[in-house]
Amino acid sequence: MAEPMSTSAAAGGALIKIFGLPVLAGSLAAALGFIFLWPKTKGEAFARFASSIVSSATAGPLLVVWLRSYSPGLFESAKDVATMYGADQAVGFLFIAAPIMVAAGLPAWWLIGGFVKWFENRRSKDIGEMLDDATASIKKAKEAL
Known about the structure:
mainly alpha, elongated
């Protein structure tokens, strides 16, 4: 006789069905971002969290499709590994897709944090002075190349 599913396992399965891999991957990316670059306000945290989820949900699948077309053997190997462990082959696909989708959410976290810090450092400046700073930064970056 099969054992009844635990409440936490049922809740976890429901979350995956409701939110899907992109949202969970984005949430993990945001959580990783919290570890390394903590937001200063609730608004900044919300903006960075939301941008990580959107980035994972949009760029993540595109990266997975690109990687699968670039290296299909990687996904086939992952399916073989899942089969060796007695899991469904779709789990093997997730071995590769989930980390890629999480990684796709991290740049948004860092970019939003960078913009917040850049604007915070220029809090007392007007828009013209900020534009001067931006053009000077771009010029300096071009010269470094």
